[in-house]
Amino acid sequence: MPELPEVETIKIGLAKLLPGQTISRVEHDWPKSFPNAPTDVENFLIGAKVKEVRRRAKVLLIDLDSDYTLMIHLKMTGQLVYRSEKDRFGAGHPTESLIGKLPDKSTRVTFDLSSAKGKAKLFLNDQRKFGWVRLMPTVEVPNVDFLKKVGPEPLEASFTDKAFKQRLLKRPNTSIKAALLDQTVIAGVGNIYADESLWGAKLHPATHVNKVSDRAFNILFKELQYVLRLSIEKGGSTDKNYVNAEGKKGSYMSFARVFRREGQACPRCGTIIIKTRVAGRGTHLCPKEQKFVGAAK
DNA sequence: CACTTGACCTGTCCGC
DNA sequence: TGCGGACAGGTCAAGT
Predict the structure, then answer these.
(1) pLDDT-based confidence at residue A297 (cuts at 50, 70, 90)
(2) How far, in Å, is the CA of A161 from the C1' of nucleotide B6?
(3) What's the order of all strands across the beta sheet hosting A118-126?
(4) What digits encode the pLDDT tens for the residues A118-130?
(5) How does pLDDT run across A54-87, given as a tens digit for each residue?
(6) Closest nucleotide to A146: CA versus each C1'
(7) Strand B positions closer than 7 A to protein CB
(8) Any idea what the Cα angle at residue A234 is, between residues A155 and A166, rounded to 5°?
(9) Which residues have CB atoms below 7 Å from chain C, the nucleic strand?
(10) A31 labelled catalytic
(11) Residue A140 among the catalytic residues
């Protein structure tokens, strides 16, 4: 569920909190959450100081002054929550907070941090255990399979409508929704923003890519950028358990037009929004405005 | 090769 | 109330 806007929101939060902090200890209770921890932690993690926090696609990168990087993928239910000692590591925030005392039963990895300002902890929580952290030399980051194959960032200024169309046409015979979700086509789009942008462009998610007109590509591009930017501004989407670096929810869901709004009125035409299945995913659409125009020839 | 489906997991919800 | 099964959806591996 963390998609581009959610991971970006966490990145913005951690970028204010982590740089300058030294990692003093790490614990993990689920080996798959931190596969290479045993071999590299002592030498390259403990005692290292955080230099910078970055994001690429849905991946978070925490660069350390040991020239190692923590690469983190939250997959579906991952949370990365920072608590300072002042917060007693878990009093919780009075408002907007989804989680209370930490660690909780979904905590998989705990990093202890220290700086001149005091002690803190960073918790990787993950109910479903799909997420992971890996430690690797910073220079190796670009060579990780996923990052070698992943497509361009949709909000980069250099990413144009022309490039958008070109990338999607890499998958001419699949549905436009499957192409949007394909991380090797474009980085960072998941189920929420695929549905939201397709509604914006009045495109049926099952429309085959080679049936999409130039005009529709251009509108879809603008709509995708719009929903991603709006969501970052609103702190992301909290559907079930997404929270930012401070444990707070994002509010995009109250601005969503179709996602999780089956049974409600389409904001443009009033038709009841339906939920169906496209590209193996739950898919929300307005059946009047998003007509299926036919499969590829 | 292009594309789709299943596995990885756990919590929640729905029907019986 | 309890219980089985479907469902949630990011990515990789396996299948068509």
Answers:
(1) very low
(2) 34
(3) A22-28, A107-115, A118-126, A78-84
(4) 999 999 999 999 9
(5) 999 999 999 999 999 999 999 999 999 999 987 6
(6) C11
(7) 2-6, 8-11
(8) 20
(9) A 1-3, 57-59, 73, 75-76, 128, 130, 145-146, 149, 181, 183, 190-192, 275, 277, 281-282
(10) no
(11) no
What percent of chain A stands above pLDDT 90?
78
| pLDDT of res. A98 | 60
Query: Is A58 labeled as catalytic in the residue annotation?
Result: yes
Q: Spell out residues with C-beta < 7 A from strand B.
A: A 32, 105-106, 127-130, 171-175, 178, 279-280
What is the per-residue pLDDT for A97?
58
**Burial environment of residue A100 by CB neighbours within 10 A (0 to 12, 13 to 18, 19 or more):** exposed
Nucleotide closest to residue A189 (CA–C1'): C10
Distance B4 C1' – A181 CA (angstroms): 14
Distance CA A244, CA A125 (A): 12
- The answer to whether A3 is a known catalytic residue is yes
* Predicted pLDDT at A295: 52
- DSSP-assigned letters across all residues of A152-219: --TT-TT--HHHHHHHHTTSTTSBHHHHHH-TTTSSS--HHHHHHHHHHTT--TT-BGGG--HHHHHH
Q: How confident is the model over A7-22, as a mean pLDDT?
A: 96
Q: Which run of H or of E encompasses A23?
A: strand A22-28
The residues, any chain, with a CB within 8 Å of residue A51's CB and separated by 6 or more, are A19, A63, A64, A65
State, as a whole number of angstroms, the distance between the CA of A208 and the C1' of B4: 15
Report the nucleotide nearest the CA of residue A195, measured to C1': C9
In the prediction, which pLDDT does A240 show?
82
